[in-house]
């Protein structure tokens, strides 16, 4: 080969090798960009998925929130919200508590149950009354330090959008056969009870027991239909005490004022025992 041909051949090989290296590194860069979160549906993670009607089908349990502790605390994927009424504001949260959480709350409550009281609207003092015939107890500050209780309190605060500090301690309630709580509003009419934390604005009522007949939570001013309350057909909305479910209702309307339509009661238990756990939430921190 003449020297000039040798030079041209060498130059061509150099250029060709350079081009190959350039293209390969560009491809690698593109692949890297596609794999970065949220950039492209061409990434290998998506390419493995099949399409139906031109729509990518995500695998079951698509691991978007894998290993996320909050998912467990909030029971995402288990809780199903169902709006029962906008005025008064009532939302039923199916599966709000796990069965284990229900059993734990009942176990804390059982040894300390005492006759329930009601608040005198003039003096603010509490006393025993035929208006409310259940028994109950409030969780202590020690009970509230348990991780399961803390998870429940956090869940309540997030679903209700009210800070944990604004919550009163959870009250565990048990209603035996023929026991009830007559319709009332959870907000206060006296000044004494407003001193700490201000007005009650919302209530999360959680059902923690099963095998009960009757014992519905009844909202006489909710909806325009009829419902069942302790075996009687009445006007309004009632919620069955199904273990694990919770009902969140607002004592305050969208106008920011106490809502008389939030009137509610616990219907008479016809058979079995009804167990519930109540969290009242205030305007300000309740500490
Ligand atoms: O336990 C209930 O179903 C219930 C119903 C209405 C509890 C309360 N109110 C309450 O404690 O305020
Ligand atoms: Zn109430």
Write the layout of secondary structure elements.
Blueprint: H1 3-35, H2 44-47, E1 51-52, E2 55-56, H3 69-74, E3 80-86, E4 89-94, H4 99-109, E5 114-115, E6 118-119, E7 126-127, E8 135-138, H5 147-160, E9 171-175, E10 181-184, E11 200-207, E12 213-214, E13 217-219, E14 226-229, E15 232-235, E16 237-239, E17 246-250, E18 264-266, E19 269-271, E20 274-282
Antiparallel strand pairs: 1-2, 3-4, 4-17, 5-8, 6-7, 8-9, 9-20, 10-18, 11-17, 11-20, 12-19, 13-16, 13-18, 14-15
Pyridine-2,4-dicarboxylic acid binds at residues 173, 181, 186, 205, 217, 264-266, 276, 278.
Describe this structure in words.
This protein is α+β, with helices and mostly antiparallel strands and 287 residues long. The chain folds into two domains: 3-65; 79-282, Jelly Rolls. It contains five helices and 20 strands. The chain has helices at residues 3-35, 44-47, 69-74, 99-109, 147-160; strands at residues 51-52, 55-56, 80-86, 89-94, 114-115, 118-119, 126-127, 135-138, 171-175, 181-184, 200-207, 213-214, 217-219, 226-229, 232-235, 237-239, 246-250, 264-266, 269-271, 274-282. It has an eight-stranded antiparallel sheet with strand order 3-4-17-11-20-9-8-5, covered by helices on one side. The chain has a four-stranded antiparallel sheet with strand order 10-18-13-16, with no helix packed on it. It is elongated. Residues 32-39 have low confidence and may be disordered. The site of zinc ion has 3 residues, from loops.
């Amino acid at each position: 080969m003449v020297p000039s041909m040798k030079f041209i051949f060498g130059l061509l090989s150099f250029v060709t090798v350079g081009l190959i290296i350039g293209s390969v590194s560009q491809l690698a860069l593109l692949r890297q960009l596609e794999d970065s979160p949220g950039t492209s549906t061409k990434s290998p993670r998506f390419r493995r998925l099949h399409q139906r009607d031109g729509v990518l089908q995500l695998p079951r349990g698509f691991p978007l929130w894998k290993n996320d502790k909050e998912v467990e605390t909030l029971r995402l994927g288990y809780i199903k919200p169902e709006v029962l009424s906008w005025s008064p504001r009532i939302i039923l949260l199916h599966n709000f508590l796990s069965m284990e959480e229900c059993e734990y709350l009942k176990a804390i409550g059982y040894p300390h149950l005492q006759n329930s009281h009601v608040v005198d609207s003039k003096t603010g003092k509490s006393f025993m009354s035929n208006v409310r015939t259940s028994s109950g107890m409030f969780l202590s500050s020690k009970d509230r330090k348990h991780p399961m209780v803390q998870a429940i309190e956090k869940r309540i605060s997030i679903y209700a959008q009210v800070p944990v500090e604004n919550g009163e301690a959870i009250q565990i309630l048990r209603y035996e056969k023929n026991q009830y709580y007559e319709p009332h509003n959870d907000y206060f009419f006296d000044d004494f009870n407003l001193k700490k934390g201000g007005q009650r604005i919302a209530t999360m009522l959680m059902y923690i027991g099963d095998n009960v007949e009757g014992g519905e939570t009844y909202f006489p001013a909710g909806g325009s239909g009829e419902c069942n309350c302790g075996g009687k057909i009445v006007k309004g909305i009632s919620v069955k005490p199904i273990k694990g479910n919770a009902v969140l209702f607002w004592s305050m309307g969208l106008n920011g004022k106490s809502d008389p339509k939030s009137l509610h009661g616990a219907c008479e238990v016809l058979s079995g025992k009804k167990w519930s756990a109540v969290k009242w939430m205030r305007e300000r921190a309740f500490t």
